[in-house]
Amino acid sequence: MRVRTEDEFHKPYQEIARNTFGKLLDRMQFNVIGQENLQFLRNPEQTARETAIFAFFPHTTHVDSPVVRWAIPADLRINLIYPAAADYWYKGGLIGYVMGVMSSLAVPNFPMQRGSGSTSGIYESLDIAQNFLQRYSLVMSFEGTRSNLPNDRRQFHTGGAELAIRSGRPIIPVALVGLEQVLPKGRALPSFRENGEKRIVKVSFGKAIEAPVAAGNRSRLRKDFTEHIREESIKLCLEAREV
After folding, report:
1. Which of 224, 216, 131, 123 minimizes the C-alpha distance to 169?
2. Residue from 181, 220, 230 nearest 64 by CA
3. Which of 81, 84, 85, 101 is 20 to 30 A (C-alpha) from 142?
4. What is the C-alpha to C-alpha distance for residues 14 and 8, in angstroms, rounded to an integer?
5. What is the rounded CA–CA span in Å between residue 227 and residue 221?
6. For residues 199 and 181, is the Cβ–Cβ distance under 8 A?
7. Which domains, ranges and CATH numbers included, belong to the chain?
8. 217 φψ region: left (φ > 0), alpha (ψ -120 to 50), beta (else)
9. CA max distance for the chain
10. Buried-exposed string 181-216: b where 16+ CB fall within 10 A, e elsewhere
11. Beta bridge partners of 137
């Protein structure tokens, strides 16, 4: 897998395209909650840039990723990068190339193997992601793919938890509310209005969840931490609906 250089992610024309799409999202009633929980990422007393793993939930549409980007304050937005499913967005060939370019105009991303990939490919992707975490905050779905399941029936993969344990970076849970019908599976273009009214969308940033220290049974630690993140994500969604 080719490792892309940093100057490929935030070129001026890419940022213009991403911000233009972000302004389209303002055609919805866009409510952001919990931005104060991101303050530690801009702590001026830190000698090195602080980074984290944003875990958004639920994953229902391709619009989820740019919505999270647009909800993050502009001064932190430039420090984001997204793992993108290599088997979907970077398939190879002309179609794969076009899809990769188009996806990078929505959010800065790099190809990452998910559960259906080879074990060696998955570990290589984790190594690449860990390296990016030294400079960037990652934004990802622990579900790994879009789903129409109720929130309490959705399952998380353990790769994100493993990445947090390896890197020592905290997890910031991100609840998404109201995006289910914006761009569901099978629809080519997003729908920002419902019955002539702006769709109401909420993005809620929870408090950072510190990664546990790697000790003992790594598999059990990874699974338990994943389940903890899942429970906190479901809880955050319920709280966001009440605001």
Report:
1. 131
2. 181
3. 101
4. 9
5. 10
6. yes
7. 13-242 (3.40.1130.10)
8. beta
9. 56
10. ebbbeeeeebebeeeeeebebbbbbbebbebbeeee
11. 80
Cα separation of 153 and 145, whole Å? 14
Q: Is the pTM of this model over 0.85?
A: yes
Q: Kindly list the distances between the CA atom of residue 114 and the CA atoms of 78, 85, 140, 158, in Å, as whole numbers in the listed order.
A: 25, 6, 12, 10
170's tokens: 């905290």
Give, for all 243 residues of the chain, the pLDDT tens digit: 445 555 677 888 899 999 999 999 999 999 999 999 999 998 766 555 699 999 999 999 989 999 999 999 999 998 999 988 777 666 777 777 788 788 888 899 888 876 655 566 778 889 999 999 999 999 999 998 899 999 999 999 999 999 999 999 999 999 999 999 998 878 888 999 999 999 999 999 999 999 999 888 989 999 999 999 999 999 999 999 998
| Distance set, CA 90 to CA 2, 87, 98, 206, 238 (Å) | 11, 6, 9, 31, 34
One DSSP character per residue, the chain reads -PPPPGGGTS-HHHHHHHHHHHHHHTTSEEEEE-GGGGGGGG-TT-SS----EEEEE---STTHHHHHHHHS-HHHHTTEEEEEEHHHH--SHHHHHHHHHHHHHHS-EEEE--TTS-HHHHHHHHHHHHHHTTT-EEEE-TT-S---S-GGG----SHHHHHHHHH-PPEEEEEEES-TTTS-TT-SS---EETTEEPEEEEEE---BPPPP--S-HHHHHHHHHHHHHHHHHHHHHHHHH-
